[in-house]
Amino acid sequence: MACTTQDDRPIVFFDIDNTLYSASSMISHEMGKKIHAYFVSIGLSHEEASELHLKYYTQYGLALRGLVRHHNVDPLDFDAKCDQALPLEEMISYSPQVQKLFEDIDRSKVRVWALTNAYRLHAERVLRILKIDNLVDGLIFCDYLMKDFSCKPEPEFYRMALRAANVGSPANCYFIDDNRKNVDAARAEGWGHCVHFCEKGIEHMEGGKLKAIDDAREPGASDNDVVDVTTLDELRTVWPEVFKAS
Ligand SMILES: [Mg+2]
Questions:
Q1: CATH among 3.40.50.300, 3.40.1360.10, 3.40.50.1000, 3.40.190.10 for 11-23+91-242
Q2: pLDDT-based confidence at 208, cuts 50/70/90?
Q3: Quick check: 20 pLDDT over 90?
Q4: What's the chain look like in SS3?
Q5: How far is the CA of 167 from the centre of ligand 1 (A)?
Q6: Domains of the chain by residue range
Q7: Distance 114 CA to ligand 1 centre (A)
Q8: Which residues surround ligand 1, an ion (CB under 5 A)?
Q9: What's the CA-to-centroid distance between 117 and ligand 1, angstroms?
Q10: Higher confidence at residue 246 or residue 187?
Q11: What is the 149 CA–ligand 1 centroid distance (Å)?
């Protein structure tokens, strides 16, 4: 979906998982179980599986990166048995509110893309369930067809996104993600308008260990010009220039 013509409109990048739908859908939790089972299926004990799952997630931002690097796992096999095996249609429901938010973005002013650490198939499936697939102009995903694909929060992933979307200046990028590390990485690349989506009450849920890794920051770290929101609708206030005048 890379575009080849120059388009000077700023671009709004939305993370997908746990941003466009609530983390209360427990998809991360179910995904964690499938990933654990995958580690076990390649011959690791339950203990090693837990340890390495956490280690790779912390180190690479994505367990699969470690599986590919250190265990020669085929990303597409992993995708089939983990992401694709989730009954997403039963776990996520279409939200008229999210759809309306996307409809209310002024396309004469900005472009709207999704930026995900999942593979294309999972991303497209979620966008279809949410009925916003026709409201997203393009998709940046982890390309599992490439052996050494990059992912958030690696700088290369953000640079690849700018190339793929033909963005002239990172200052023209808007970005929202539920993972604070991913947001800070975008800021480090000079992305102009960054928002951290922190849904209320989610940190207390199961799977909170990974969430704590996502959001861990140095004590006393500055806000890094990142705005926190607890609902997507708050974007209307944070980025008023992106939406149609009401
Ligand atoms: Mg996310």
A1: 3.40.50.1000
A2: low
A3: yes
A4: CCCCCCCCCCEEEECCCCCCCCHHHCHHHHHHHHHHHHHHHCCCCHHHHHHHHHHHHHHHCCHHHHHHHHHCCCHHHHHHHCCCCCCHHHHCCCCHHHHHHHHCECCCCCEEEEECCCCHHHHHHHHHHCCCHHHCCEEECCCCCCCCCCCCCCHHHHHHHHHHCCCCCHHHEEEEECCHHHHHHHHHCCCCEEEEECCCCHHHCCCHHHHHHHHCCCCCCCCCCEEEECCHHHHHHHCHHHECCC
A5: 22
A6: 11-23+91-242, 27-88
A7: 11
A8: 15, 17-19, 178
A9: 8
A10: 187
A11: 18
